[in-house]
């Protein structure tokens, strides 16, 4: 069972209490741990809430509305003027899929606020062109789909 030796380490368990035997760099996907144990736990909820407070609007909606890059307060005013609801973001999306890489997972430069609709359609788009859903991991097994929620 020869594994590629030049792969960067991908899995750095956050909880030393739970040595999850990262023998396979992609095992985080196949493992049976809960989302919380994979890093979507309390710390993520906190960071996510904080991020969405600072970036409350879906960037894709803003782009569609021509409001991208406008200060939040101005977006609120503009939406009120147009009589449309604010494009509230509820999901923090990883622009580049982190694939279990904790540095990418926590890199806020790699985050973007999205509404659920755009998050779902974006995920589908990325999966559509032979994306992650049918990707084959370095161990030769198919890699499952990504879930950032
Ligand atoms: Zn949106």
Characterization of this structure:
This protein is mostly helical. The protein has a domain at 34-134. The chain is built from 7 helices and 2 strands; from the N terminus they run H-H-H-H-H-E-H-E-H. The chain is elongated, with a radius of gyration of 18 Å. The structure holds zinc ion.
Keywords:
disordered C terminus; 40% helix; 2 strands; mainly alpha; single chain; two-stranded antiparallel sheet; 149 residues; binds zinc ion
Brief overview, please?
Helix content is 40%, strand content 5%. It is mainly α and 149 residues long.
Radius of gyration: 18 Å
Sheet-strand content, in percent, reads 5-15%
Quick one: biggest sheet?
2 strands, antiparallel
Q: What helical percentage do the residues reach?
A: 25-40%
Distance from first to last alpha carbon:
34 Å
Strands of the largest sheet, in order across it?
A: 1-2
Q: So how many helices?
A: 7
Number of strands: 2
Order of helices and strands, N to C?
Answer: HHHHHEHEH
């Amino acid at each position: 069972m020869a594994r590629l030796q030049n792969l960067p380490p991908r899995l750095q368990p956050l909880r030393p209490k739970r040595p999850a035997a990262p023998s396979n760099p992609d095992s985080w996907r196949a493992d049976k741990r809960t989302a919380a144990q994979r890093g979507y736990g309390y710390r993520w909820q906190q960071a996510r809430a904080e991020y969405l407070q600072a970036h409350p609007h879906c960037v894709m909606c803003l782009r569609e509305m021509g409001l991208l890059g406008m200060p939040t307060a101005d977006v609120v005013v503009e939406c009120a003027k147009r009589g449309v609801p604010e494009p509230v973001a509820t999901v923090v999306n990883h622009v580049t899929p982190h694939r279990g890489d904790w540095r990418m997972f926590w890199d806020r430069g790699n985050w973007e606020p999205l509404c659920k609709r755009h998050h779902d359609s974006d995920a589908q788009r990325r999966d559509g062109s032979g994306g992650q859903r049918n990707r084959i991991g370095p161990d030769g097994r198919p890699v499952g789909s990504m879930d950032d929620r």
